């Protein structure tokens, strides 16, 4: 087996081991490891090498205060994300969204149609699923959708680098829903758009919310081969 195969095996191992973690242990990730994760993530490409990502990263009591303030905010404010949320999920996109939601609900024991219990599970987003750290990711408004696109690559690389160190993570658009609050709380200037949060820490491996894995579409469903 050549070097390339070995590298691909290592990359595939990270890609398949990573999953969105929805229950964390409370013990912190050492600052040095967080720096390693962010440094690795910065290696992704960006249009004109603009590197549009900026992060606010919380630890310790800063995460706890943010968690509490965020939960209070959801009780008193309506969602108002900087980046408009998808207008709808239809067809296969709706199917995939539902499959993921049902797998989560089944894992945590929420019955289909139990709106109270599913809303309670959704609200766990605002506890940051118990994570000891949260990164708030923003991009310059003037770079528009391409800045956001570059930051999407950053999110993936962040999650993979974290996985390589045994650190679990979850990107959260649900947190970005409270845009004005995030700008106020973290002094994020108005010439930037908040894209998402990434909660991270060590996974609670025995928690039911971490017991399922999402599927992926077949290659022929996503590639139009021209040969
Ligand atoms: C930009 C982005 C935003 C997301 N926002 C949320 C969120 O707010 N809450 C949540 O539980 N999962 C969120 N997710 C996780 C997705 O549900 C998850 O990536 C998808 O179902 C595939 O599962 P996997 O990450 O475990 O492979 C988000 C993922 C991305 C990439």
UniProtKB/TrEMBL annotation:
GO MF terms held by the record: oxidoreductase activity
Signal peptide span: none
InterPro entries to which the protein is assigned, alphabetical: Nitroreductase, Nitroreductase-like, Nitroreductase/BluB
Domain Nitroreductase, residue spans: 16-202
Highest taxon, organism lineage: Bacteria
UniProt keywords, alphabetically: Flavoprotein, FMN, Oxidoreductase
CDD domains per UniProt: PnbA_NfnB-like
Name of the protein in question: Nitroreductase
Source species taxonomy: Bacteria, Pseudomonadati, Pseudomonadota, Alphaproteobacteria, Rhodobacterales
């Amino acid at each position: 087996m050549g070097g390339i195969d070995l590298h691909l095996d290592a990359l595939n191992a990270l890609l398949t081991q990573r999953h969105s973690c929805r229950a964390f242990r409370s013990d912190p990730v050492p600052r040095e490891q967080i720096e390693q994760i962010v440094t690795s993530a910065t290696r992704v490409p960006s249009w004109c090498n603009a590197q549009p990502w900026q992060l606010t990263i919380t630890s310790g009591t800063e995460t706890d205060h943010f968690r509490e303030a965020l939960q209070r905010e959801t009780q008193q404010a309506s969602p108002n994300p900087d980046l408009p949320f998808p207008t709808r999920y239809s067809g296969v996109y709706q199917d995939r969204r539902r499959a993921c939601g049902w797998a989560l609900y089944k894992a945590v024991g929420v019955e289909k149609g139990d709106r109270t219990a599913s809303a309670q599970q959704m609200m766990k987003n605002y506890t940051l699923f118990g994570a000891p750290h949260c990164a708030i990711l923003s991009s310059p408004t003037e770079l528009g959708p391409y800045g956001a696109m570059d930051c999407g690559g950053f999110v993936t690389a962040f999650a993979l680098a974290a996985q390589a160190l045994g650190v679990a993570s979850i990107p959260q658009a649900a947190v970005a829903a409270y845009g004005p609050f995030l700008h106020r709380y973290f002094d994020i200037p108005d010439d930037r758009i908040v894209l998402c949060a990434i909660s991270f820490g060590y996974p609670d491996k025995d928690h039911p919310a971490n017991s399922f894995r999402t599927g992926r579409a077949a290659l022929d469903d996503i590639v139009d081969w021209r040969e």
